[in-house]
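Suppose a classmate hands you a notebook page containing two proteins, each written out with its sequence and a corresponding row of structure tokens. How would you begin to make sense of it? This section walks through that situation. The first entry is reproduced here exactly as it would appear on such a page.
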Amino acid sequence: MILKRLFNRACILVASIMLFGCEDNSLPDDTQIRDYSEFFSALPEQVIYPQNNPYTIEKEKLGEFLFWDPILSGNQNVACASCHHPQFGWADGRAFSIGSDGVGLGPERFGNEITPIHAPSIVNSAFVGLTNSSDLESFISGPYFWDLRADTLSEQARGPIENPVEMLGYNYHESDIMDEVILRLSSNNEYVALFTAAFSDEPEPVTAQNISDALATFQRKVVSTNSRFDLFLRGDSTALTQAELIGLNKFIDGGCASCHSGPMLSDNLIHEDKKVIEGLAPVRTPALRNVAFTAPYMQDGSRSSLADAISIYEDRGDLEVTIGEGDFGDIERFLLTLSGPTYNHIPQRVPSGLPVGGAI
């Protein structure tokens, strides 16, 4: 009798689960197109260049060579492209980059000089800090780095050159490396010609500021401004599928857009009260543009997939979000619409004659 009663209760429990299902804390599937202008706007179709570093094709060409040339590093073995490569969405596909003693590319790179935080992509660096209400005529991008310590893109471009873990190494002091780099470039006839063409109004064109400005000008070329989400925001209601629209609405209703907003889907602010990884200091809100190509995710690179990164925010009352497990796939489908065509050219050579991209 006891076994029979237990069997009957088990049957009732199974039937209840089949009838009502398990508890579901997912957001409702809303397929209605809303007014999204409160949260988002499309990226500008043209790159914005600041008045103190205006665009010229000569400066862009010079900046691209410098980006790929290990001549800027202390040991002439690391280039900007060593850790920001188009094959990995202009990042490196690693949780933490390997810098000044690194050999190899992307996840296969090895070495002992490991950066303490995940390297972000340079895609759309031109639009960092852009908001829905920014005046494009006077907009100056920035600030940069996870801790916002660099006010401008030119300042950011110089940072890795002076960092011993990233590009500097330990044969030069950070206060001396720019003088050394200037000496190297000034001794190279091709670079002298390139700097002279890019900064023709200056008596001494090879300077630390001009190196930074040329790098910043090239980085502003690496943009992705025509994703399907951009097309949708510009008025093409067919650019998103119904499933992606559900994900977009859940992204908003779940609280994600409270920080991931604006043209870059980032407010570019540090939220001291919204740290999501224990043991790490709060960092700026990362932009989500072209996020499909820049795994792994989070500032410590601890999440290998988008769904895994989204899951951090499940039922996080301290972050005022309410997304559940059933929402992960929907939000991921929306995030994949943020990716679009991006400049991906790799030069065949650099003026120094060193390996393009360094020891990769």
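The notebook's second entry, a different protein, reads as follows.
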Amino acid sequence: MDYKYKRVAIKIGSNVLTRKDGTLDFTRMSALSDQLAELHKNGIELIVVSSGAVASGRSELKISHKLDSVSSRQLFSAVGQAKLINRYYELFRDHNISCGQVLTTKENFGSRGHYLNQKNCMEVMLEEKVIPIVNENDTISVTELMFTDNDELSGLIATMMNVDVLVILSNINGIYTGVPGEPGAEVIMEITPGRKDISSYIQTGKSSFGRGGMITKYNIARKVAEEGIEVIIANGKKDNILPLILCENSQEVCTRFLPSNKPVSGIKKWIAHSEGFAKGEIHINEGASDALCGENAVSLLPVGVVKVVGNFESDDIVKIINDKGIQIGVGKTNVSSEKAISLIGKKGVKPIVHYDYLYLD
């Protein structure tokens, strides 16, 4: 089988790896590892973002008393992550392939230095033919600092590692035109750049054991595709699904988000996913909003600023808010909040956010 991708990120969701009783499905995990091994042996660089630590720990421990949600997640993941990575180690060892554990937190993506350290670590692993197995470090993450779910994490990893395609494996075939299983509901096979928002089609319910749902997958996929990376949402419970969707001229039923052709720099990719780390807001007038959203590339100048919210330093991430109170982008500021306030409305001074460090929604 011929493949058209060189570097692939694959997110394996909780509902793919979990049985109905909430425990880890080792049979499915083994089948997916076999598929990953086939891709690896065909020269594809693989990054796996894997859920399943909590499910793995839940099946190992029998708690006689009730724990709060954060404590139970920390406990199950602490035990389950060791079990999960050991199972991956054994499964890949059968194919003479090495894998390594990469645990991260949302905070690690908020600093450009930490971001680049993670990227360098994983680049070295790929150079040495080691498959990174990535997951959130739930043992130290608390609610307000957690990723929305591993879909968000996989989007960050995909753009950070500049993959050719991000595969999000769920327990359904893709995004449907209605409720999956109901008459007339069909899989949307292809979503092109600039296509109108289709979120109205999507059910907003969350998966049984994951933290996110299809609306989260859609929003992440659309943003990643806008940054030039193809995204595929497919059914991870189908036999041999990975080779079938990644081969040349694939006809497998799934939803493909076609990538934008416009080039996006590495720093802009980082900024695009940094909204959750914003330390403040820059509010701008209508003229500045029109200029930023126009065809020409422009920076955010103090003359267009009407209000500064929050307490931030130079190089922090800030949200850009238009005159209607709507967020239109995020950027890395050149000045502190104190300095930005002093520059409000001034002409002939340097940008508050330079175009090279500005991402517009």
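A careful reader of the second entry would note: The two ends are 38 Å apart (CA to CA).
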